[in-house]
Amino acid sequence: MIRDITIGQYYPTDSVIHRLDPRTKLVWTLVYIFSLFLFRSFASYVVATVLLVTVIKISKVPFKFMVKGMKAVVILLLITVVFNLFLIPGTTLVQIWKLRITYEGLNTAVFMALRLTYLIIGSSVMTLTTTPNQLTDGMEKGLAPLNKIHVPVHDVAMMMSIALRFIPILLEETDKIMKAQMARGADFESGNLITKAKNMIPLLVPLFISAFRRANDLAMAMEARGYYGGEGRTKMRPLVYQKNDRIAYAILPVYLITMFAARKIVGI
């Protein structure tokens, strides 16, 4: 399960999506997520599906690698679907004892499952095709106007970049600690919920110690190299929009208009 989490990982390959400016990918990801919640119709989700599949194909990231990241949130997805399925009142379709599955609940559950799935995969496309340094530069450049109201944009972008970079490192560390504890007789699977929670203590304690040690080492390394924040700093590779970025921005309103037209024309 730990190895299946792909958030924060970068998949190195040469594709048009990889070469896009990180600001372009950030804007597209935000608009895509926003459109999933704005347009609630079957036809609109068909358009969103076509776009997502096309982008994954162009990115040259294996689809299996994308789907592998969903395994870590399957339980959360199932809980969300079950709650929407049984707790939303409306026209009864099936009744099992005191539990009722309504048409409204089924409709909400299906769309909620699609939203969460597309949200995770869509976000994964951005992180898998963009390095943490590129994400930092993109966020800092995109949020630069907030500096005028004294928002520490560089510091926020740096913290988010470090957090993304530490995710795969901590996951790998968790996997190593878990295997070491299992070799010493630890059992993380059997027992009730309370027992499983107690069994996690031998895993969490060394993991927290390792995380704080890594954070301290990083802070000392940054201080030793004279890191002092964003003011007056220059970039080795300044972000400049290219032809492909302009094409991507031109496609953006076309996508939104198509989503809106699909909902109005098809009506389902």
Automatic annotation (TrEMBL):
<dbReference type="Pfam" id="PF02361">
    <property type="entry name" value="CbiQ"/>
</dbReference>
<feature type="transmembrane region" description="Helical">
    <location>
        <begin position="109"/>
        <end position="129"/>
    </location>
</feature>
<keyword id="KW-1133">Transmembrane helix</keyword>
<feature type="transmembrane region" description="Helical">
    <location>
        <begin position="73"/>
        <end position="97"/>
    </location>
</feature>
<feature type="transmembrane region" description="Helical">
    <location>
        <begin position="26"/>
        <end position="53"/>
    </location>
</feature>
<keyword id="KW-1003">Cell membrane</keyword>
<feature type="transmembrane region" description="Helical">
    <location>
        <begin position="247"/>
        <end position="266"/>
    </location>
</feature>
<dbReference type="InterPro" id="IPR003339">
    <property type="entry name" value="ABC/ECF_trnsptr_transmembrane"/>
</dbReference>
<dbReference type="InterPro" id="IPR051611">
    <property type="entry name" value="ECF_transporter_component"/>
</dbReference>
<protein>
    <submittedName>
        <fullName>Energy-coupling factor transporter transmembrane protein EcfT</fullName>
    </submittedName>
</protein>
<keyword id="KW-0472">Membrane</keyword>
<feature type="transmembrane region" description="Helical">
    <location>
        <begin position="149"/>
        <end position="171"/>
    </location>
</feature>
<keyword id="KW-0812">Transmembrane</keyword>
